Amino acid sequence: MSAIPSIRKLQYVLIVARELHFRKAAEKAFVAQPSLSRRVRECEEDVEFEIFHRDNHFVSLTKAGMSFVKDLEQILRRLEDDLKRAIERGRSISRRVASECTVAHSPFASLRMRHIALKLQETTFPHLDLRLRILPTTELLKAIESDLVHAGITFAPVRHPGLATIPIGSERWFAIVPARDRFSTVQRISISELKGLPLISNGADRTHPNLFDQLAAQCASNGVHFKFVAEVTSPNEAFDLVKGGIGCVLLPEGACEDLPKGVRAVHIHDITPLETVFVYRRSDTEFAAAFAEGLRIGLSQTAVMDEKYSKTAIPLPKRKPPVSVTKSELQRSLFPAKRNSVSE
Questions:
Q1: Would you say the C-alpha torsion 242, 246, 248, 252 has a positive or negative sign?
Q2: Is the N-terminal amide bond of 136 cis, ω within 30° of 0?
């Protein structure tokens, strides 16, 4: 092929293929007929085969032309759709105030995490108008990809084209059970001890299938197979159902920070802890690295559950919001001798 035909030439070919008449095609394209005929002939020279049979009174597609036009219609249709999406993203960015930043998070992200994010904005990113938004993980990932939000906080594993993750912490799994049941005096159990109990779905099977599959595989290896009696979309819904005797639910430890009366959180010691991750578009690496590092520092300063509480009865007492992350602390950790690696 001597040259790739221009989009304009390809559009002219498509119009002629639809009209099978050069004068009518020229009228449709709002160009002079000689100009359109010349561009179509140039396109044929570019692709090095005849697209049309021509005589004084008749225009038809060659066999090669029919195949080419069929593919061309799909190509230009996809191009138009992609262009529309690009325009919408550009308009969204142009309308957005430069300092506005929206970070989405899972409904089961800890209250402590949200406090740290807001403190981080106050102490380290004062130029940002930070907004937090609750979204289930599947919606969160689509929103980041579509540039509806800048980034998100959820749990690994995350597998989504075009997005990357930075680990910022880990959380253990806890079973939320009635305060007065057979687990009322224990602090930790094996997942196999939940075998046969009615389970309430935390919604991960629908909102975070990768995480659900990982958890289900670990439970199945211990003889526990999920058979849900209800589904919840937030920790408070879970607490209400457990209090009502509907069943027990598995939640990340951060979701257990503010337990109401009537329920307890019991650590499940033989399930792999969750990895909390900061999710971002690959084009936003600089912002993501700085913000994620601030979150990681904040979480390391104030763990969701202190060691002393893991050795005492649960429910846990309410705790104060974490101390703020100072600029000097963030800078020291952002520019260490050896950077933390970013994992997809």
A1: negative
A2: no
Q: 126, exposed or middle or buried, with CB in 10 Å at 0-12, 13-18, 19+?
A: exposed
pLDDT of 103 over the 70 cut:
yes
Give the whole-angstrom CA distance, residue 48 versus residue 54.
17
Q: What is the mean pLDDT of the chain?
A: 83
% residues pLDDT > 70 (the chain): 84
Residue pLDDT, tens place only, 287-311:
889 899 999 998 888 654 444 444 4
Token pair 């221009």: residue: 6
Q: What pLDDT is recorded for position 48?
A: 92
In a domain, 189, yes or no: yes
69 and 109, same domain (yes or no): no
**DSSP helix/strand/coil, 150:** coil
Q: What confidence tens digit (pLDDT) does each residue in 223-244 have?
A: 888 788 888 888 999 999 999 9
CATH of residue 69: 1.10.10.10
Taking the C-alpha atoms of residue 106 and residue 262, their distance in angstroms, rounded to an integer, is 25
User: Which residues does residue 263 pair with via DSSP β-bridges, in sequence order?
Assistant: 178
At 305 the three-state DSSP class reads: coil
* Domain housing 260: 173-272
Q: Using CA atoms, how far apart are residues 310 and 306, in angstroms rounded to an integer?
A: 7
Give the burial string for 27-65 (b: 16+ CB within 10 Å, else e).
eebebeeeebbebbeebbebbeeebbeeeeeebebeeeb
Contact status, residue 163 vs residue 277, Cβ threshold 8 Å: no
Q: Which distant-in-sequence residues (6+ apart) come within 8 Å of 160 by Cβ?
A: 141, 145, 279
The first and second tokens of residue 148, run together, are 């509806």
Q: Which of 121-125, 268-272, 309-313 has the highest mean pLDDT?
A: 268-272
User: Do residue 68 and residue 192 come from a single domain?
Assistant: no
Tokens 């759709």, located at residue: 81
- What total number of domains does the chain contain? 3
Q: How many CB atoms lie within 10 A of CB 2?
A: 7
